[in-house]
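Weekly puzzle thread! Below is a chain. First person to post its structure in token form gets bragging rights.
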Amino acid sequence: MEAHGITRAHLARLVRQGLVDRLDRGIYAIAGHEPTAEHTLAHVAKLVPQGVLCLLTALRFHELTTQSPAEVWLALPEKARIPKLEYPRLRIARFSGAALTEGVEEHIVEGVPLRVYSAAKTVANCFKYRNKVGIDVAVEALRDFNRSYRGHATELAQFAEICRVSRVMQPYLDTIA
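Winning reply:
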């Protein structure tokens, strides 16, 4: 805001007048602004910059599912503290090592850098966390990935190896192929 010539005092005045809503510390929106899915993801990315959008949220971001998650799924390092947000609700998945760092893409949404796992890494993660998301969701994601990302089988195999789910995924890959 300061880069656009809006001082903190002016921003506080806009909030008091009801023209701008303070959503969270450092996050403001025009009054009456209906939060979109992208706005919610940008909100989380701003407040939890070390987190990576994963599982159902990443599937939705890559348009690989018909599911509409009620929470924002976020991957955090094993020992990271769980952020306390009033909105939106978070669903935390713990990752470590290469499973945490590999396959992270950065997208800019509403001017905020958004860290999200690639489509191939997300599919592998769904098989790794199939007890949390459901095997039906993982298989649907695999089918949609196969349809939308033809020629990326080696990338998928690489992430399946990192997530240690190659043997679990193989029967489903054979069925689809």
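Puzzle host: Confirmed. Bonus trivia for everyone else. Residues 1-34 form one domain.
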